[in-house]
Amino acid sequence: MAKMIIPVLLAFLLLAPAGAALGYIGPGAGISVLGSLLSILATFFVAIGAIIFWPLRKLMKRRKARRQAVDGAEPGQDGADVSGDDGSGDQHKA
Predict the structure, then answer these.
(1) Average pLDDT estimate for 36-49
(2) Does pLDDT of 55 surpass 80?
(3) Which residues, 6 or more positions from 92, have their beta carbon under 8 angstroms from its beta carbon?
(4) Whole-prediction pTM value?
(5) How far apart are CA 50 and CA 1, in angstroms?
(6) Residues 11, 6: Cα–Cα separation, whole Å
(7) With the CA atoms of 5, 6, 11 and 13 taken in that order, what torsion angle do they form, in degrees rounded to the nearest 10?
């Protein structure tokens, strides 16, 4: 243990007085970093939103199915057939 302390202490003493490394980030690299950061933040907030709204969507579907069951309609049907197809297989000519 004592053998390890001396090299670590020596390395710290040699590196401690080093000045700050100055660097330049060009506009292309800066915009790339900013775009990456914004996409990570957007992904995080979309994931949180999905986690929050998923139970609400299930609740809304359940309430709609219950309301349609009370009204007598089958779940998944809203009662309106706008296609003009009566299900008989015959083509209607206008």
Answers:
(1) 97
(2) yes
(3) 84, 85, 86
(4) 0.43
(5) 52
(6) 9
(7) 100
Can you tell me which residue has the tokens 């206008």?
94
What residue type is 12 in one-letter code? F
Q: Which of 60, 61, 41, 37 is nearest to 49 (CA)?
A: 41
Mean pLDDT value of segment 67-79? 68
CA 35 to CA 40: how far, in whole Å? Answer: 9
Give the other-Cβ count within 10 Å of 11's Cβ: 10
Tokens of 3: 């053998």
Instruction: Reduce the DSSP state of residue 41 to 3 states and report it.
Output: helix
Cα gap 84→93, rounded to integer Å = 10
